[in-house]
Design a protein that fits this description.
- The structure is a single chain.
- By secondary structure, the chain is of the alpha+beta class.
- It has one domain (2-91).
- It contains 5 helices and 2 strands.
- It has a two-stranded antiparallel ribbon.
Length: 94
């Protein structure tokens, strides 16, 4: 019951301006806690950012194509690479 209370602590209304619509979330007047709702939403974002693929194909059992891993590049290497692309008058200032 606690999780259900937290997940239903807010409701949304479709609002908008000219050419722009969005869902605005409101808390119910009895001020129910919604900490678990916030934690669940944050966990979903963290899982998505870390590479979790939200699709039906993966849920059915098919293996989705893995992302290519990129080689780590140092910032100093990027600066050196970009240095050659700058105009001559900018390179002479240093």
């Amino acid at each position: 019951m606690l999780l259900a209370d937290h997940l239903t602590a807010e409701y949304s209304k479709l609002e908008g301006k000219v050419g722009f619509e969005f869902c605005k979330w409101y808390a119910y007047p009895d001020k129910r806690d919604n900490h678990m709702l916030d934690v669940l939403a944050g966990n979903c974002v963290a899982a998505s950012v870390s590479g979790l693929c939200w699709n039906v194909v993966a849920a059915v059992g098919d293996v989705p194509k893995q992302r290519e891993t990129r080689k780590a590049v140092k910032f100093s290497e990027i600066v050196k690479q970009k240095e050659g692309q700058r105009p001559q008058w900018m390179r002479d200032k240093n």
